[in-house]
Amino acid sequence: MTLLKRYVLAQFIKIYLLTASGLIGIFLIVDFFERIDEFLSKDAPMIDLVSYYIYKVPFIAFYMAPQGVLLATVITLASLAKNNEFTAMKACGISITGITLPIIGASLVVALTILASSEFLSPITNQKMNYIFMGKIQARTSYGKIPTENLWFRSTNGDIWSIDYYDPYKSKLEKVIILKSGKDNAITERIDAREAIWSINKWEFIDGYIRKFAKGGIQSTEYFAKKTFPTPETPKNLSKAHKRPEEMSLSGLYQIIKDQTLEGKDTSMKWIELHRNISYPFISVVMALLAIPLSIRSSRHGGLLFCVGINLAMGFVFSFIYAMSISLGRGGTFDPILAAWGPNLLFTVLGFYLLLTMDSEKAFPI
Fold it and tell me: Positive or negative, the Cα torsion across 150, 153, 157, 159?
């Protein structure tokens, strides 16, 4: 039995590597013809063009993994059925589950590999890819820049900051307002300063005043030429450039969610992105669970093309429902967890149902 499982696993891995490479290659070719004009019009060096597509491979592999698993599962099982190897394995007392378990296990390994890539590899390669195309080729002035003007944010200690201009090179703030709140979010204190300069480990506020408020209005006003206040904000915190979603690791995105939650910002969109980035790789396992019973059933009634057609149709249905669910999550209709994981759960149940009813002659037993 172990030898047969190894045989099925080897067949699946070989076909998966071929299908995944083919899908990535097709994507790269189509993308090359779409973008080559922009590279040529800017007289970009060949090294930028080659580097751009090398860095793009992990980005494409992330999205092509489920499709690669689906096709590899279909082709592997259809070829086994065509050569009557299923019949021989059953005659040896091996169940369908025993035959296909290596495929499910391999699809889980693919999902975990893509998930690890999303944490450690893809953020780096995606950032370099975007820098070449957006920063150098398209010359977008906003790409990768540190926000410096009209900054509004809530600090981790609850204070609200307003900064007209931030100079990241001199660690200097101009026209600073800090609002401190008490119970019921009522403003209890306001600090205004013409400028603030970072000195060793604290901000020195220059030429400003402190107003304290009570229920009846302004309680007191204190002017100062230079004063320091304990604040959690540092130049390092303010010098974070805006990153695109694909340039963030899973842990980095989660940390941003935590920071923005403390700042009082709406993080629903980022929760959607986080759960989507985690759930998407596991579509590979869902595709394997669906493709196994569909491939074995459809092989009884047609050849390889019929198997591929049936499974691609199911894959299209899943992709449509998954995309719709994510859109509903972004629109606020679905909770982020339901939006990202709901389709996976639904089709996993369907896959197990089809596996448990393998003996039925119907394509979709009801």
Answer: positive
